[in-house]
Amino acid sequence: MSLVKTFIGVIALLIIILNVTKASRLYKWAGLSFFVLGLVFYFVSVPQEVNFFHLFGSMTGLLALLFVLPFMSTIIKVGKYDLALSKMISMPPRPNLVRLYKRTSIMSYLLTLFLNVATVPVVVATVKNKLTKFGKGVIERFFAHSILRAYALVLLWSPTEILVASTIDMTGTNYLLLLPTLLTISFIFISVDWFLHSRQLKGRDLNIIQETEDYGETLRKKLLQLGIAITCFIVVLLTFNGFILNRFCLQSRF
Fold first, then answer.
1. DSSP 144-177
2. Which one, of 122, 194, 110, 123, lies nearest residue 158 by Cα?
3. pLDDT (tens digit, 9 = 90+) per residue, 109-146?
4. How far apart are the C-alpha atoms of 14 and 48, rounded to whole Å?
5. Could you report how far apart the first and last alpha carbons of the chain are, in Å?
6. Could you read off the pLDDT of 43-70 as tens digits, one per residue?
7. Cis upstream peptide for 180 (omega within 30°)
8. With DSSP H G I counted as helix, E B as strand and the rest as coil, what are the percentages for the chain, rounded to 5?
9. CB–CB of 160/116 below 8 Å?
10. Is the pTM of this model over 0.85?
């Protein structure tokens, strides 16, 4: 086990050295700052018997998650869930600004689980042409509230969110025990947001061409498939994480 930790640490250090010149200025200086701080704390606080390269292994799971995130967008593209959700925007009953706000919020909420930050441009490109009759300030405020608030409320419980994953990893808390509470908080806040905007945006109509074809059945199937995909992803993630932790504990005992 010690040899594996050393190997991971050496590989991680090589990756940092090889990629430091290729990173943008912001990430380069931020990364180097944290690396230097880590070195300082290593020499000041870490016991001498602890191998320097062993310290890199504690973040391997988090780095693996960052590596997997870009590939998750493939699920959306292959399943054409983004197209199905965009059809939802123009489905009957004819949307006014309140309905459009709620539908945009739902679309952002679902896509964030897989696309993360890439959700913002996808949703903006889908909805922007339906807000042409309003001024720039109204449009910017609409997107800032409908997309970013839904985005933030998903990150509150999503296992792909770095802060959630790192907190669970560091504290050893069971994610399944936290999930019901986090989901409840998320749903409560998004319901309150919808209620407040229903009062603020009431009475504003939109110039939207309503879809004449019935996409209701197709949309229900796509949403069901998306729900199954999300559930499977979380189950696989938790199972794999539990397997790694159990294996690590067994090896540590011996």
1. HHHHHHHHHHHHTT-TTSHHHHHHHHHH---HHH
2. 110
3. 887 877 777 778 778 877 887 787 788 888 888 898 99
4. 23
5. 10
6. 888 777 777 777 776 666 566 666 666 6
7. no
8. 80, 0, 20
9. yes
10. no
